[in-house]
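Cross-check.
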Amino acid sequence: MSSIPKPIRTAALEYWQGGGQQLADYRDVDQHHDHLTRQCFLDCSAEGYSTFWVRLPDNPESKAPKHYTYDRQIDGIAFASEGFDKMHSLVEALAVQAGATPQPLERAVHFDPELEHIPGVARSTAILLTDAAGTEGLLLGQDEERHVTIQPLVGLAPADDASAAG
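Predicted model, tokenized:
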């Protein structure tokens, strides 16, 4: 370990202590012991406002569902988002240490037909669910305030096999 440059060791240790260990514990639970979606809820109101949340166990290191507690109400969506941001920052810091220059990437996912987000309703797309014919669906996303949004989609052009893969 001493052969690894100090800035890299420091960045890795800070990541691990700042949430990487807990993220690894949740990953182990999900892959080997239980479903992290055990405490997953979708709440739809008559006014059309919907809330989706996933609660993570307080003690993933126990690796035993019968010992899990949910008293701390850990928001799984926020935890995953923050965990991704922290991991991205670590990888970028390591790449910079190795001499790389960070560059933005082009959007990797394209929808066919192109989706239009309704202003104030959805800013980003998380999941697009459609019927088997691809003509109706739900667009789950996030608005500017990072609230979950659900937008019904009706009258979509049926997707053929070639465009569905793109």
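Helices lie at 6-33, 76-97, 161-164. Residues 6-33 form the longest helix (28 residues). Passed to J.P. for a second look.
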